[in-house]
Design goal:
Number of helices of chain B: 3
Number of strands of chain A: 10
Distance between the termini of chain B: 39 Å
Largest sheet of chain A: 6 strands, mixed
Order of helices and strands of chain A: HEEEEEEEEEEHH
Number of strands of chain B: 16
Number of helices of chain A: 3
Structural class of chain B: mainly beta
Radius of gyration of chain A: 23 Å
Number of domains of chain A: 2
Largest sheet of chain B: 4 strands, antiparallel
Helix content of chain B: 10-25%
CATH topology of the largest domain in chain A: Immunoglobulin-like
Order of helices and strands of chain B: HEEEEEEEEEEEHEHEEEE
Helix content of chain A: 10-25%
Number of domains of chain B: 2
Distance between the termini of chain A: 79 Å
Shape of chain A: elongated
Strand content of chain B: 35-45%
Radius of gyration of chain B: 19 Å
Oligomer: heterodimer
Largest interface: A-B, 21 and 29 residues
CATH architecture of the largest domain in chain A: Sandwich
Strand content of chain A: 25-35%
């Protein structure tokens, strides 16, 4: 009799326990905003910063103002690092394959201003947005620094087509606008 | 002739019924808090550098705050299962709730929309959803349209309590799970937010009366 009751108890627990395991609402993210540079230069717009924990992406943000990610305003976009993450887990920040010098410890609900600095060598690094507005690659066309000029670079150029200002990674000739002149430079090195 | 004598009696009964109701009641029918032709309410966020959960009590025309005093506002997207920065218009609907982070003791001001009866609705996804309500009714009434789709009601009482409101505040300073047996006796606060766990996709509707 006791054995039967024990078995019934175990079965009931197996049914009930899963209910309690999901009976906790999502935890708040760890929130970041700040400045971001690569080799001392402002990272250009449209660069994507990815936050990873244990090598797994847990948040991303696209740079909308050269040299900044997110903002301090209530409704400004911010980098939200979230998901099933333990407090204290190490957060690393990436642009492409390049990792920032800074890391952070995950703390649910924390809002943190964090300035990110990336350093890439001239031969191999990848910052996703090129080297910034003071280290142009005038005729390379290799916007994403993957060592070839291809459709990926072209798509970035199209995203910036007609835009004006500084920090545009597709503005190869640095005349402040992404136009046919930049396109011709990209074509000159196509598939190289 | 006898019917004329009964008029004062009928008027008296009607007056007792009208004035005997609490705030938000009209002949026993729950009405939206603060609704009906404008006006505003100020809510004090009394815990600097802490998150609070808040929900408009009814349809708003504006959600006002001092931008330098608020560092972040977050909503939860049940479809992507992730928090996100809401749009300004998301802050105006009583069916929504959100997290707000003041960096100092400050207040927000809710400007009520002009009277316009109708229905507001929100698509809920399977899993956790963050919602609000527009009345101080019992949980079983406020969530009457989605009872069969909701398995758990979680009250983030601590964060709901990080603000001062004059309405009934249930669960202040206490986070708790509420199973459905307690719904008939659980009174909700139209300024609070609630997590509900939906077992499937459904639509949450509230009448704006």
């Amino acid at each position: 009799m006791k054995t039967k009751l024990l078995i019934i108890g175990v079965i009931c627990a197996a049914i009930v326990l899963p209910v309690f395991t999901f009976a906790a609402p999502p935890q708040l993210p760890h929130i970041f905003y700040g400045n971001v540079t690569n080799n001392g230069n402002d990272v250009p717009v449209n660069t994507v910063i990815i936050a990873k924990v244990g090598g797994v992406e847990k948040g991303r943000i696209t740079v909308s103002i050269a040299g900044k990610f997110g903002g301090s305003g209530a409704l400004d976009e911010k980098l939200l690092v979230q998901g099933n993450i333990s407090n204290g887990a190490v957060i690393s920040f990436y642009i492409g394959d390049s990792v920032a010098s800074q890391t952070a410890s995950f703390s649910s609900g924390n809002i943190q201003q964090l300035n990110l600095t990336f350093t890439t060598s001239s031969s191999g690094g990848n910052t996703g947005g090129g080297g910034g507005n003071t280290t142009p690659t005038p005729i390379s066309g290799d916007i994403n620094n993957d060592n070839k000029v291809d459709i990926l670079d072209f798509s970035v150029m199209m995203a910036q087509w007609g835009q004006t200002g500084s920090g545009l990674s597709a503005d190869f000739n640095q005349d402040g606008v992404v136009n046919i002149l930049d396109f011709s430079l990209l074509m000159a090195n196509w598939n190289q | 002739m006898k019917k004329i004598y009964s008029i004062p009696f009928i008027v008296a009964i009607a007056a007792i019924m009208m004035f005997g109701q609490g705030q938000g009641d009209f002949f026993g029918i729950k009405t939206a808090f603060g609704y009906g032709g404008g006006g505003s309410k100020t809510i004090v966020l009394n815990a600097p550098n802490s998150w609070a959960v808040i929900s408009p009590s009814t349809k708003l025309s504006a959600f006002n705050y001092t931008s330098a005093d608020i560092t972040s506002i977050l909503a939860y997207n049940a479809t992507t299962k992730a928090f996100e920065v809401p749009s300004a218009s998301d802050l105006l609907d009583p069916i929504n709730a959100f997290y707000i982070y003041p960096n100092k003791g400050t207040s927000v001001s809710l400007d009520y929309d002009t009277f316009s009866p109708g229905i507001t609705s929100k698509n809920l996804s399977s899993g956790w959803n963050l919602v609000g309500t527009n009345s101080d009714g019992k949980a079983i009434d406020e969530f009457s349209t989605i009872q069969s789709s909701v398995s758990t009601l979680y009250v983030p009482g601590t964060l709901n309590g990080n603000k001062d409101t004059t309405g009934t505040s249930f669960g202040t300073n206490a986070n708790r799970d509420l199973d459905k047996t307690s719904w008939p006796t659980t009174q909700l606060n139209p300024y609070d937010g609630y997590w509900i766990y939906a077992t499937g996709a459904t639509t949450y509707e509230k009448i704006l009366n």
